[in-house]
UniProtKB/TrEMBL annotation:
Residues 1-28 are annotated as: Disordered. Keywords: Repeat. It holds the Pfam family TEN_YD-shell. The lineage of its organism: Bacteria, Pseudomonadati, Pseudomonadota, Gammaproteobacteria, Enterobacterales. Residues 1-17 have a biased composition (Polar residues). PANTHER family: PROTEIN RHSA-RELATED, PTHR32305. Residues 19-28 have a biased composition (Basic and acidic residues). NCBIfam families: YD_repeat_2x. Residues 359-467 form the Teneurin-like YD-shell domain. This is RHS repeat protein. InterPro entries: RHS_repeat, T6SS_VgrG/RHS, TEN-like_YD-shell, YD.
């Protein structure tokens, strides 16, 4: 630190340092990373940043109004987005680089009353006397009413569909405000906690309608913790997962429901070095001075990666085992590589071309706001993409705006929706949803697929049936989760 107490250098777990320089007013003007690459920042008289220059192509310029609120952002390409405010400093409008404008309106108390998108379609909001949101009306006509108790906690959400149907979810809380129970027409969920307010169990109890209409099943997910508060076990319908952790809380050993052990090795503050399954190495990793992955092994392959001055992925090469060693940062020649890719980025930081050794080149184009407008390549037709002023994808340049924000289709696909805004038809597919907004059935031709979820809303099973061959599943897939990260799939094929 310097004499003002401002950080001038940070040294990480591997002894690599990042330097920080400040001007006489204490503003951060320069950041030098462990590879010597520099980000430079300049300021106006009020101490607000005017320019940010990255090590590579990127440069950003900012202007501010008299209240110190950002009024514009200009990129190195010259494209500009801007913001306007009310006299009270509330955001009134945002105009993106393609002149698409979003506007906000407020009540005399300064609460958002309406949001108008680039098409002119509105979201409208209502508040109670205490300023709490109690109603929302969307451009497609769907509305939601929020019912609060005297303490301000949500007790119910009532959704009115575009055809007049009503869905209602109730919520119950304890004196501490913790959620104890939620209930809708298809199921009830209850929540339990320990003395540290950590959740210990979530139980799903389907209603008769949930069972009959969506094949929902009762389910409980339970959690265990150690004295430090780290999660040590999760028990769910597809089995239990147990964790061992290092002193920093990183999981070093995960026991899967079938008894297999997934182990991780780390260095420093938690940078992954190796992953193994039952003692057999799955992947090993090497990292550069910024801890970015520069090499990864997978079986008999080793994939090497390099980055440009802005930290964007520049190239990848996969080599078979036994190939000549590759020095850090060295880009192997394509000859002899199993796979190879080079990435080329535009001045906005968007990938412009991917040159793949197997599939050839793919070229992408964008508008000034970063919306994808084109894709072409050796394995693709020349695809063009069009948008309305709210950013909805259109079939062609002449199509009118999608005022409801419900896309009528894309390409050869036509879409249909229910009154809740959920997709119900796509080409020859029919889709069904429960009151939780979870996809529960897809009918496609002679095939019917059912989906099931646990008490946390994670998809835990998928079964596919022949529509005219009885009730025996052709295949079944069970999903195992580590928290909300998919960890394992178990597939069973039937005769």
């Amino acid at each position: 630190f310097d004499s003002r107490g401002q950080m001038t250098r940070y040294t990480d777990c591997s002894g690599r340092s990042t330097g920080y320089d400040h001007d006489e007013d204490g503003n951060l003007t320069r950041v030098t990373d462990a590879e010597g690459k520099v980000v430079r920042i300049s300021y106006n008289r009020l101490g607000l940043p005017e320019t940010v220059n990255s090590p590579g192509k990127q440069q950003d310029r900012y202007t501010w109004n008299a209240l110190g609120l950002m009024s514009s952002h200009r990129r190195i390409t010259g494209s500009v987005e801007s913001w306007r405010y009310t006299p009270r400093g509330l955001l009134a409008a945002h105009t993106d680089e393609e002149k698409r404008e979003t506007r906000w309106q407020y009540t005399p108390e300064g609460r958002v009353a309406a949001l108008t998108n680039g098409n002119g379609a509105q979201y409208r909001f209502s508040h109670d006397a205490d300023g709490r949101l109690v109603r929302e009306v969307r451009p497609d006509g769907l509305s939601r009413t929020f019912i609060l108790d005297d303490s301000g906690y949500l007790t119910a959400i009532q959704t009115t569909g575009t055809q007049g149907g009503v869905r209602r979810e109730t919520q119950q809380r304890d004196a501490l405000g913790r959620l104890l129970r939620t209930e809708n027409e298809h199921g009830q969920r209850t929540f339990s906690y320990n003395r540290l307010d950590q959740i210990t169990a979530v139980t799903l109890t389907p209603t008769e309608a949930g069972q009959q209409q969506h094949r929902m099943q009762a389910d409980t997910v339970r959690f265990e913790y150690d004295r430090s508060g780290w999660l040590t076990a999760e028990h769910a319908g597809n089995g239990s997962i147990c964790y061992q952790r290092d002193a920093l809380g990183n999981p070093t050993d995960i026991t899967l429901p079938d008894g297999q052990h997934l182990t991780h090795l780390y260095y420093g503050s938690g940078h992954l070095l190796q992953t193994a399954l039952d003692g057999l190495t799955v992947s090993e990793y090497e990292r550069d001075s910024l801890h970015r992955q520069i090499m990864r092994t997978q079986g008999q392959l080793a994939t090497y990666s390099g980055y440009d001055d802005d930290g964007l992925l520049s190239w990848q090469r996969s080599l078979a085992s036994g190939s000549a060693p590759v020095l850090p940062g060295q880009r192997p020649a394509r000859q002899g590589c199993v796979t190879s890719r080079d990435y080329y980025w535009n001045n906005h930081g968007e990938v412009g071309t991917i040159d793949d050794g197997l599939r050839g080149s793919v070229v992408y184009s964008y508008d000034r706001s970063g919306y994808l407008t084109g894709r072409s390549g050796q394995m693709y037709d020349h695809d063009r993409y069009y948008y309305d002023k709210a950013g909805n994808l259109l079939d062609n340049e002449g199509q009118g705006a999608v005022m409801s924000n419900r896309l009528p289709g894309c390409g050869r696909d036509r879409y249909g929706y229910n009154e809740w805004g959920e997709l119900t038809t796509r080409r020859d597919q029919q889709l069904e949803w429960n009151a939780q907004g979870q996809l529960t059935r897809v009918i496609s031709g002679n095939t019917e697929t059912h989906y099931g979820y646990d008490a946390l809303g994670r998809r835990t099973r998928k079964a596919t049936y022949g529509r005219h061959t009885g009730h025996t599943a052709r295949s079944r897939t069970d999903f195992v989760w580590e928290g909300f990260r998919l960890l394992q799939e178990n597939v069973q094929q039937q005769g």
